[in-house]
């Protein structure tokens, strides 16, 4: 267990994980079947800043601070468009690691979100992978099942399994063995432009309650103002698509399998169920019938929605609180009249819970990233410096850095991160953090299956594109997708 | 006005109509090709917020060179990386170009002048590589480079770019050599020159436009290549520009002014190269097309 310095920490440290465990192992309904009065924004505020952690001391027990070694490490980086604040934390992280472990020669490589998985797969084929890698949550089981990853559990790097969200641990577990550690976990929210809502005759301070409302609001916004109502995304092989469509699919009561059920076993394919088809029909209604979403939605990802939203050309979208920080940065760097215009956009940004389905089901993707150690035979040079790899993993998954590296838009993978002073500071600085925190109980992890990346990044967007382009009817597209999932699960495709 | 002059005027009018039609078409093509470049340049001098404004500002109300300062300042990490990527691209493209020319010149000459068994088959087979999409060779070449110990080196890129740059270069130069009268070499041989001397002193100077065109082709191909560079290189200090500009795209956002400034800077060497050498380039293309 983590080094705790504060007296009350033990009690707090045990309550929260237990609550989380029950939260994330249960279904995501409008009335979460857990005691939300405990895990509420108020609860997060109450534990923030109650404990202190010494990262160097904790990690020094895993890998001595004077350890001499070499480590190659790939991760999904933050780049020029990301909030300045987050970029600074990434810079600080690597500086701090080098200062703490001056004798570890670290060769880190940042890769972009959409390219990381493909590049990593190619590197594995050529036995040229890095020693350690931080991947999107979807990648864990895929690579573990193929035998590329070394078994790795939180205890191996000085933490306890109970320090992490059970849903996230599931994403790094294959055949009962852990192959990685969650670094950060996220649930998104609905963002809307209050000014657009007002001008379209909608309540500017009230989010659409249901997905059906989203369809109606989107049409109303488009009909009255001529701008896109909802930021639909359907791009293939881009993580943004399942993150935005799955909440809709689950909200309507559908799913790829039974992943939204309390104890999923992924045995039954539900992509062509009536509920799933209703969800797809909602996208069809917005794109084809009402034409109330961006016409470029088929190739859009969130990075394409953001400019539209900031330019007042989009009414609603699903995203992180980091969008607010991106806007603050843009405002800071704008000049003259643009500064005022940017401020107006900021003033009109509103965050709310992701809408529910017609039966009151509310859901959101429980996303995030994991960190893994590769087996030597797949690594460039054929050797893995395990102590060096464990040192960086301990560092990144520590309460301090798992919080800081998720500062602007996500949640710390290590639950003790919620108790740090930086969490307290973050609650004061990052507006709308409460909203995404409130979405945590509704988080549903992607199916913990090796086939999940193919299903989420290829089959789901394909299904949407088939329906939205008119290549197939909604029924046919859903049936076709279900058939592909069945073939994939049977070892085909 | 007599009948003859009337016909002449009518013909002139018809010709003028065609000429004006051609001019309008060329103007349209100019707009079609230039507007994206102009838009790229204008976006690069906007702030991040102004770049997203709607309706778009055709001319930025608050122009700024911040993106260029950022890219060209070796003191900050963005500038350091950009300048390194730029240098890497320059090294890889120049090396590829030099090697492509060194190999293509004698190879094309041989195909043009010598008759040997399997000549025709070999000549067409050099094109085989270019008949398939680049991505098909991605994994096999990656494994090969790994076997050769060239992953994460610029050598892997130079070698790979030659596999698709050389066939084009050989074909282009062969057409050029075919149009240089063989009698010139024969005259040199009669005057006592060896074949090598005839080639170096007679044929080479005449084939300069073709060699330059080949060099431009090779350089542009290597300069803009993305997928192999992206796959073969994993170290920041080795990356080339097409891969490096990716850093302006993030999971949820894009730095448009930075991206446009980097893209503009990236296009400068190619545009300069083309402008300086365009007369040779055009000559090479047209000369290869006509039999003397």
Structure overview:
The complex is a heterodimer of chains A (493) and B (292). Chain A is α/β, with parallel strands linked by helices. Chain A folds into two domains: 9-187 and 366-444, D-Maltodextrin-Binding Protein, domain 2 (3-Layer(aba) Sandwich), CATH 3.40.190.10; 189-364 and 451-489, D-Maltodextrin-Binding Protein, domain 2. Chain A is 44% helix and 13% strand. Chain A contains 20 helices and 14 strands. Chain A has helices at residues 9-24, 41-47, 55-60, 84-100, 116-125, 139-145, 166-170, 194-199, 211-225, 240-251, 274-289, 302-310, 322-333, 337-348, 386-396, 399-404, 421-429, 433-439, 452-468, 474-489; strands at 69-76, 104-111, 132-136, 173-174, 177-178, 181-186, 189-193, 228-230, 314-319, 349-352, 364-365, 367-373, 411-412, 443-444. In chain A, the strands form four sheets. A six-stranded mixed sheet of chain A has the order 2-1-3-12-6-13. In chain A, α9 (211-225) runs parallel beside α11 and α10 (240-251) crosses α11 (274-289). Mean pLDDT of chain A is 89; it is low at 1-37. Chain B is mainly α. Chain B has two domains: 4-44; 79-287, MetI-like (MetI-like fold, Orthogonal Bundle). In chain B, 73% of the residues lie in helices and 0% in strands. Chain B has helices at residues 3-44, 48-51, 66-72, 77-113, 119-125, 138-148, 154-178, 182-190, 195-206, 208-224, 227-232, 241-244, 256-287. In chain B, α3 (66-72) crosses α4. Chain B is flat. Chains A and B meet through β2, α5, α12, α13 and α14 of A and α2 and α6 of B.
The CATH class name of the largest domain in chain B reads: Mainly Alpha
Tell the overall outline of chain A.
globular
Mean pLDDT of chain B: 88
Give the low-confidence spans of chain B: none
Helix content of chain B: over 70%
Large-scale geometry of chain B: flat
Proportion of residues in β-strands of chain B:
under 5%
Radius of gyration of chain A: 22 Å
Mean pLDDT of chain A: 89
Residue windows where pLDDT falls under 50 for at least 5 positions of chain A: 1-37
* Estimated share of beta-strand residues of chain A: 5-15%
User: From the helix content, strand content and strand pairing of chain B, which structural class follows?
Assistant: mainly alpha
Label the structural class of chain A.
alpha/beta
Radius of gyration of chain B, in Å, reads: 25 Å
Oligomer: heterodimer
Distance between the termini of chain A: 44 Å
Report how far apart the termini of chain B are: 44 Å
Tell me the CATH superfamily of the largest domain in chain B.
Answer: MetI-like
Family (chain A): Belongs to the bacterial solute-binding protein 1 family.
GO molecular function, one term (chain A): maltose binding
Signal peptide (chain A): 1-30
InterPro entries (chain A): SBP
């Amino acid at each position: 267990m983590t080094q705790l310095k504060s007296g009350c920490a033990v009690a707090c440290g045990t309550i929260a994980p237990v609550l989380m465990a029950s939260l994330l192992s249960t279904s995501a309904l409008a009335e979460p079947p857990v005691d939300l009065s405990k895990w509420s924004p108020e609860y997060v505020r109450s534990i923030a800043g109650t404990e202190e952690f010494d990262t160097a001391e904790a990690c020094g027990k895993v890998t001595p601070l004077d350890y001499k070694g070499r480590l190659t490490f790939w991760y999904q980086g933050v780049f020029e468009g990301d909030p300045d604040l987050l970029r600074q934390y990434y810079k600080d992280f690597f500086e701090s690691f080098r200062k703490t472990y001056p004798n570890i020669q670290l060769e880190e490589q940042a890769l972009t979100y959409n390219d990381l998985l493909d590049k990593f797969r190619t590197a594995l084929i050529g036995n040229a992978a890095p020693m350690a890698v931080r991947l999107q949550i979807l990648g864990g089981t895929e690579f573990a099942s193929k035998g590329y990853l070394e078994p790795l559990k939180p205890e191996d790097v000085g933490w306890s399994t109970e320090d992490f969200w059970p849903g996230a641990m599931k994403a790094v577990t294959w055949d009962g063995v852990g192959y990685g550690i969650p670094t950060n976990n996220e649930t998104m929210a609905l963002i809307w432009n209050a000014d657009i809502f007002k001008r379209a005759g909608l309540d500017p301070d009230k989010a659409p309650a249901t997905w059906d409302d989203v369809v109606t609001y989107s049409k109303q916004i488009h009909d009255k103002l001529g701008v896109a109502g909802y930021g639909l995304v359907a791009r293939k092989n881009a993580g943004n698509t399942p993150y935005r469509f799955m909440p809709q699919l689950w909200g309507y009561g559908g799913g790829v399998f039974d992943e939204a059920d309390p104890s999923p076993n992924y045995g039954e394919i539900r992509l062509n169920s009536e509920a799933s088809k209703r969800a797809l029909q909602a996208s069809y209604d917005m794109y084809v019938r009402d034409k109330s979403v961006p016409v470029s939605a088929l190739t859009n990802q969130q990075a394409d929605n953001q400019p539209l939203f900031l330019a007042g050309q989009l009414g609603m979208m699903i995203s992180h609180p980091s969008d607010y920080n991106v806007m603050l940065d843009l405002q800071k760097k704008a000049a003259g009249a643009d500064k005022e215009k940017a401020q107006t956009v900021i003033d009109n940004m509103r965050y709310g819970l992701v809408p529910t389905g017609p039966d009151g089901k509310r859901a959101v993707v429980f996303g995030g990233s994991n960190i893994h150690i590769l087996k030597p035979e797949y690594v460039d040079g054929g050797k893995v410096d395990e102590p060096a790899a464990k040192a960086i993993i301990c560092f990144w998954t520590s309460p301090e850095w798992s919080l800081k590296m998720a500062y602007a838009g996500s949640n710390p993978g290590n639950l003790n991160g919620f108790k740090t002073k930086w969490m307290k500071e973050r609650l004061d600085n990052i507006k709308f953090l409460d909203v995404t925190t409130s979405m945590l109980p509704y988080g549903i992890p992607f199916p913990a299956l090796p086939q999940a990346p193919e299903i989420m990044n290829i089959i789901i967007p394909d299904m949407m594109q088939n329906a939205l382009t008119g290549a197939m009817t909604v029924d046919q597209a859903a049936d076709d997708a279900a058939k592909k999932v069945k073939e994939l699960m049977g070892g085909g495709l | 006005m007599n009948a003859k002059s009337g016909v002449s005027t009518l013909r002139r009018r018809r010709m003028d109509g065609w000429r004006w039609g051609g001019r309008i078409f060329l103007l349209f093509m100019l707009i079609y090709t230039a507007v994206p470049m102009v838009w790229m340049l204008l976006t690069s001098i906007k702030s991040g917020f102004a770049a997203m404004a709607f309706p778009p500002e055709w001319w930025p109300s608050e122009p700024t060179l911040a993106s260029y300062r950022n890219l060209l300042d070796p003191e900050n990490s963005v500038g350091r990386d950009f300048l390194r990527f730029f240098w890497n691209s320059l090294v890889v493209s120049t090396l590829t170009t030099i090697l492509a020319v060194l190999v293509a010149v004698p190879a094309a000459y041989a195909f043009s002048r010598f008759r040997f068994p399997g000549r025709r088959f070999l000549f067409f087979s050099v094109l085989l590589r270019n008949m398939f999409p680049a991505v098909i060779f991605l994994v096999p070449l990656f494994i090969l480079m790994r076997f050769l110990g060239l992953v994460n080196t610029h050598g892997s890129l130079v070698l790979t770019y030659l596999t698709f740059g050389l066939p084009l270069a050989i074909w282009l130069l062969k057409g050029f050599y075919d149009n240089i009268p063989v009698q010139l070499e024969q005259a040199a041989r009669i005057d006592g020159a060896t074949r090598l001397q005839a080639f170096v002193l007679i044929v080479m100077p005449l084939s300069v436009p073709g060699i330059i065109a080949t060099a431009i082709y090779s350089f542009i191909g290597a300069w803009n290549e993305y997928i192999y560079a992206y796959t073969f290189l994993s170290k920041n200090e080795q990356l080339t520009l097409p891969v490096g500009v990716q850093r302006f795209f993030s999971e949820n956002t894009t730095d448009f002014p930075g991206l446009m400034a980097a893209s503009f800077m990236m296009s400068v060497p190619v545009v300069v190269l083309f402008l300086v050498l365009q007369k040779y380039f055009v000559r090479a293309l047209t000369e290869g097309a006509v039999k003397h």
